Amino acid sequence: MAQILVVDDDPAIRQLLADVLEMDGHEVRVAVDGLTAVSALDEILPDCVVLDVMMPGLDGYGVLRDIRGREGDRVPVIMLTAAADPESAARAWADGADYYLAKPFGADEVLYLIRSSLRDRQQVVEG
């Protein structure tokens, strides 16, 4: 299936997402914060990124800007946040997020968004 990069400073959320995605057949790489995510992006080209907004050091917006500044295919980014306010959502959309999901979320919601992102990306590649 797809290679997914999960970036979240909360170990329970990282583990939940990794377990759900692996059970769905995906290869999962995790990063504990924004700086680790940027380093991982130098090593791998994920098919999708699930990215927390609020993290110490480099936040999700900084990671998103880094992702969008890279050459190559546009990697889908699903942003997760505990602070689901209109300003945060507007900033995520302006910075290039594909989806914005408030915590707490259901595993089915995340799987649906990832599958949609991967399907949309495949159509662009084939189109």
UniProtKB/TrEMBL annotation:
**Coiled-coil regions in this chain?**
none
Report the GO molecular function annotations.
Answer: DNA binding
Key word Flavoprotein present: no
Q: Which InterPro entries is this protein grouped with?
A: Bact_response_regulator (IPR050595), CheY-like_superfamily (IPR011006), Sig_transdc_resp-reg_receiver (IPR001789)
What domain of life is recorded for the organism? Bacteria
Supply the alphabetized keyword list. Answer: DNA-binding, Phosphoprotein, Transcription, Transcription regulation, Two-component regulatory system
Q: Which SMART domains match?
A: REC
* Response regulatory domain location: 3-118
Q: Which SUPFAM superfamilies match?
A: CheY-like
Residues recorded with modification 4-aspartylphosphate:
D52
GO biological process: any one? Answer: phosphorelay signal transduction system
Q: What is this protein called?
A: Response regulatory domain-containing protein
What organism is the protein native to?
Planosporangium mesophilum
